[in-house]
Amino acid sequence: MIYRGDVWAWIIYAERPIPHLLGGVGALFAWYLFLHGVHNTRQDWKRFAGRMVLLALSLAISLLAAEIVVRAIYSARAQAGSVDRLKEFRRRGKRPPIHSTHPLAVIVQPSDDTRVVYELQPDLDVVFGERRVRTNAEGMRENGNYPVERSPHSVRILGIGDSGMFGWDIEQGEDYMSVMESNLNARQDGTLYEVLNLGVPGYNTQLEIEMLRYKGLKYKPDIVVVGWCENDFSLPLFLLERENYRRKDKSFLFEFLFRRAQTTESRPGLLVHDLRRYDKNDVIPEIATGTDIEGVRKALLRLKAMGVEHGFKVVIFGPLHHQIRQLCGEVGVPMANTLDLIPPDKYPKDYLVYFMHPPKEGHRVLAEYLAKDLEDRGWLTPAP
Fold first, then answer.
1. Nearest to 167 by CA among 216, 107, 210, 218
2. From CA 121, how far away is CA 53, in angstroms rounded?
3. CATH 3.40.50.300 fits 114-235+286-376, yes or no
4. Cβ of 83: how many Cβ atoms within 10 Å?
5. Where along the chain do its domains lie?
6. C-beta atoms surrounding 106 within 10 Å
7. Regions of the chain with pLDDT less than 50
8. What residues are paired with 227 via a beta bridge?
């Protein structure tokens, strides 16, 4: 019945198991005193005490053995939930054993590249938050695939960002990268403009650059647009964690017996944590080093070096406050600051043009000013 889990709480009220267990032991002892206490001799009490000590030791050994067994089983199952195992699930078209409390987990998946952590699922066509979300074979929020090979007389713009660039709560094709592609091609000036959106909700700058390395560089972009918002100084929204089944600060047996319905903490397999309840100190160093000012500085320096190596231009686009402006100036990365580009009184306030999740009207404005900034820089001319 304990293993089934669904009837255990009906046998013992398990919301507060330890106080109820101690209360039950106290009640049993009181009952023993009532029946035998006045008749027991000193020798009887010694025998009773010895039996209680033996019972306590037996119970402790049994619980310890059960704890070891539960940890061994969970550890073995966790190995089956490794990243290599996730790849095998994907090849077979099966859903991997991922646990999460965040709705975004419906459209993302753990990445084969652990430095990317997670990415959008490919070939989606779903309703997410009452909005249509489609992805192509590469997991970009695009209606179709882009060829890796470049077309003659073309300009290829690649966007890396988070939920703002992805188009949170925006219908397919209404995000500012898609709108900019449509606007540029509507000019019919003989140039093919290709705008690839690699934005993934919850990313920070480090993961955006890892996504550029992982998927973007092979498309040989002319321009890389980094969609900026202030939470790019933080950890990414989701982190994959493999539980440490040798830790001493918790009992996995206790979790198994009393908290299976309320928590995913003990379940074997890869866990997807969202940062509403995640401790940065538990994050692997490769991910933690991408946070705060120094982490963003290192990421921008790496991005600049990649631009030099692969021959693309870089611009940081978004509402840029003091810290990121200072970093861009120190590193030497061009900025397109919407706080300066877009007049504060020109558009209705509900366009939210300085907010990370504007409505479709705000995205149209962002597309217009981003295209104008690229045009003013002379970057929209096809390379020889």
1. 107
2. 57
3. no
4. 15
5. 40-110+239-281, 114-235+286-376
6. 13
7. 1, 7-8, 10, 81, 240, 263-266, 269-271, 276-277
8. 317
Query: Could you please report the per-residue DSSP string of 176-241?
Result: HHHHHHHHHHTT-SS-EEEEEE---TT--HHHHHHHIIIIIGGG--SEEEEE--GGGGS--SEEEE
Q: State the Cα–Cα distance between residues 160 and 154, nearest whole angstrom.
A: 20
Residue 160's SS3 state is strand
Q: Which two tokens stand for residue 258?
A: 């009393």
Whole-model pTM: value is 0.69
Q: Are strands 271-274 and 238-241 parallel, antiparallel or unpaired?
A: antiparallel
What is the rounded CA–CA span in Å between residue 223 and residue 134? Answer: 24
124 contacts 131 by C-beta, under 8 angstroms: no
pLDDT digits (tens, 9 = 90+) for 73-92: 877 766 554 555 556 666 67
pLDDT at position 97: 55
Contact assessment for residue 181 and residue 140, using Cβ atoms and an 8 Å cutoff: no
In this prediction, residue 92 carries a pLDDT of 72
